[in-house]
Design goal:
Blueprint (H helix, E strand, L loop, with lengths): L28 E6 L6 E14 L8 E14 L11 H11 L8 E4 L12 E9 L4 E2 L11 E2 H5 L11
Length: 166
């Protein structure tokens, strides 16, 4: 358990990815952290960035940009087996990663594989969509493969509570 139970921290060697920079790597970014619960749960946070370019459809304009996906695996720290953790802490990590460009947007996808929409035990997925100038945009309808719930509507919290190191 961290010394400050009201926040979680990224270690110096595990800094959060900076989505605002134009040359942000498309390679997955991985952070491992102990859950604040003190119950031997580990969070494995995978962030990936993938470009998208979708054609216009009736009622939906064409869109191009980047889909930022954050998948938080909650596992037993000793065995690596999936463990349940309430979604508040994984959501804080997603919000902190998204805050580099926009803390008001972002979507909760649930316990699914974002590419297929198939349920995955022990993981929670989040997504943020950016245009080609790295500004947050609403999800383009043409790329939706599973339900998207706005993070702001899920818990009504507006502030990010994860202090980070640069």
């Amino acid at each position: 358990m961290s010394a400050d139970p009201g926040s979680i921290r990224a270690d110096d060697h595990q800094a959060l990815p900076n989505l605002a920079v134009q040359d942000a790597s498309a390679d997955p970014h991985i952070i491992t952290a102990a859950a604040r619960t003190g119950t031997d749960i580990e969070l494995r946070i995978h962030t990936s960035i993938a470009p998208f370019d979708v054609a216009a459809e009736e009622w939906f304009p064409a869109a191009a940009g980047f889909a930022v996906t954050v998948i938080v695996h909650t596992v037993d720290a000793q065995t690596g087996a999936p463990r349940y953790l309430p979604p508040a802490e994984p959501a804080e990590w997603a919000r902190a990663i998204f805050s580099a460009v926009d803390s008001a947007h972002g979507y909760f996808l649930g316990a699914v594989d974002p590419g297929t929409g198939v349920h995955r035990r022990g993981q929670l997925a989040y997504r943020l969509y950016l245009d080609t100038d790295r500004q947050a945009i609403p999800v383009p309808r043409q790329v939706v493969t599973c339900p998207h719930y706005q993070l702001s509507a899920v818990d009504g919290r507006a502030e990010i509570t994860i202090p980070t190191t640069a």
